[in-house]
Each structure stands twice: as C-alpha cells, then as structure tokens.
Amino acid sequence: MGTPGFAVTPLEQLGDNGYRVVAVYTQPDRAAGRGRSLVAPPLKKAALARGLPVKQPASMKRGPVAEELAGLRPDVIVVAAFGQILPRPVLNIPPLGCVNIHPSLLPRYRGTAPVPGAILNGDTFTGVSIMLMDPGMDTGPVLSRAQIPVAPADTTGSLMSRLSLVGAQTLLDVLPRLARGEIVPQPQDESRATYTSLISKDAGGIDWKLPAVDIARRVRAFQPWPGCYTTWQGRQLKVLEAVHPAGETGTPEEDSREAGRVVALKGRAAAFGVITGDGILGVVRVQMEGKRVMSAADFLHGQRDFIGAVLPSA
Fold this sequence. Notes:
The chain has eight helices and 16 strands. The protein is an alpha+beta fold. The mean pLDDT is about 95.
C-alpha cells in the first residue's frame, strides 16, 4: 500500500527478491495539470508495469474493501506513504501485521511531512523506521531503524529518494526475521515524540524578514513541492536553489539594509543575493513564471534592473 515515488522502490525490491505481491493498493487517480486530466499515482504505474493487480479504494474504512482484502489472505501488508488511515479491521487481517516504512527516526517526526520537518529543523541525520502499525498516527512499536546523513544540499526530493532505497533494504532484512519470530517490537518513547503536519500550497511564499539560514532550509524542504517563491514585476519568481552564507556582496552596504533588497554577489555560484532579517541569502537557480529554469547569472542577463530591487515578503 502506497502512493508516491517513495513507495516504488520497496515494491520493486519485494518483487525482485521473490515475494509474491497479491495486490497493490494506492490512492485513486487525481486531476492534475492545466487540462485537469486524471493522473495515476507513481505506485500504480510501477505496479501495472510489473503486471500486478491494482486496487484504488477511496477509503479503506468501507466494509466491502476490508472484506475483499481479507479474501486475498495476505501474510503481511507493507505500507509506504499510502495517505490513508487503516482501520482496525484492516490492521487485523494479516497474521504478521501491517508493516509501515516511515521516513524518520521515530518517535521524531510522526505525521505527514517527516522529511521536510528534518530539513527545516536543520538536522544532520535522519533515517527510516520500520514499524508495526496500530490505530494511532505512527505510534506503533518499531521493528528496525536505519540512519543516514542529511547533506547540506539535500532537498526533500533527493532525501526521499535515498530514504526509499534504505527503507526497502531495511524491509528486506526485517520481513524474514519477523516471520521467524526473531524480532521483539520496541515501543516508542512517547516523551520524545514530535509531529509534522500537512504542508499547504501557500507555505512556499518567502518572508524575507526571516533569517537567511531559515529561508535556505525552506527552499530545500519545499523542493519539489510546493516550492519557494517571491514575486517580481507582478509575476511569480521561484527560488529553486539557494545557499547560506551567500559570499561577498558587490553592492554598497548603504543600499543593502532593507529585507528583500537584491544585491550582487562576487565569485560564487550564487550570482545575486537577497537581504533577509539576518544575513544574505545567495540565490543559485530560479524560474520566472512561464519561463524555463535558469541559473541566477542567466536570469540577471535578462533583468538588468533587478539588482537593487526590493522583493516583497509573503
């Protein structure tokens, strides 16, 4: 059971290692893009490519859904970013339980946005937890954990890709030992629990009064979604990559005190910076609304009056 790309590698690894996947459950197709055409979730595409049966119930809480699932007689249900709460009747179906691959070191960062949460908090390490599910939100006992470093340039996208692979590898270690009864599930320490919540589309608006280090983390945490952005000449300007510290400014100090003011930078990948509430944010890559992604240097070539401008805060 899963929906986004994070769930694809575990599915592939199960199939490649001799496990018989009797069904793949994922979210219904959603309308996307300007044409609002229906788009299949990444896990559905991966499952169909392998000839696996796909189920897309709108809710797992409906009686017939649980009955159909029970009829498949699964030994274990593997869950990876499914996006639906599993009711107790479903949790009770497989004899080995429902095993969740959660991209954090539980009990830290329970909930829907653990990877952005780790980046926003400035963590240098994160990881995956394989846990037995219970009716709570990521509260079940842990079967295994695996830790990886968070690189300074990691985004949610890059970190999720690595965690997906680590989660799949850890799962392959856990399942046979779970079946043999060799693992003692470890209850989580509730006193250390932290929670994350769903990130809204509007969360990417940049407030230049925040410290530069915080904005840089938000740029990484909100990439690829919802992205960080400001506005310039009435159009949205996405900041796709940024660094802090920014480097040496090439703009006179007296012109550089207002939060949101754009300044030139010398000799760095970040061709320009933006004054923030504390420090300068160096901007490396941007995308103007309706235009292609480009480097900050290329963007400046077409925007001669950009240096010295003051960008509004969200």
